[in-house]
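ARCHIVE CARD
Drawer: 12
Card no.: 0347
Subject: one protein chain, sequence and derived structure
Cross-reference: see card 0346
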Amino acid sequence: MITEDTMPAEITDLAIGYRRLPAGKLANAVTWMEARAPRPDLAKPLAMARITMPDCNSYRAIFLEIGAPWLWDRVSEMSDAEITDHFADPRQHLYYGYDESGAHLGMVEFCVADSNEIEITYFGLFPSLTGRGFGKRLMAGALELAWRLNPSHIWLHTSSFDHHSVIGFYSACGFVPFATGFEIVDDPRIKGTLPRNAAPQIPLIEAEWRASNLENRQVAQA
């Protein structure tokens, strides 16, 4: 099922130090960022087409091509009916971005909340197109559409699973960090919602660590 992100409660009793997770779990460092006014002259917006009734197979393929390198697995857990019901809600916006030749470059999803704020839930280019200036054009197109709805602010969250430059990118697009936190998730490559070779930059650990394992390795190296 699709669930929208909400700001979790603050935790104040965190002790300083490292924490080790069980095998099969991932810790995701999160930064929440917001924009409270449009940023002029960000970039030339891509042509944006709203998709109100996406073909489920096509949508899954696009979502996973863009998102699997960053461990997006939401659509892998959804039925066709759930996808259809989700986008039947007028608060949910899905847009595909196109260049001047009509080539499909990426996707944006955002949600208009009852509190008159907009959350950008998913944003991304096809992997072969990154680093060519299309990201700012896609964001410019998305923000142009979002600000037309007169929200009080627009927000999103970044992930330590994302590209290392993502905070700088969003900052350049007018977003300012306002909170940090973490998320613990089941590794989608182990639970089977993504291929095991997805996101090789994120370690896949499925066997529990034991002190004896380290001792055996040290003996073998001696």
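Annotation on reverse: The chain has a mean pLDDT of 91. The CA atoms of residues 98 and 104 lie 5 Å apart.
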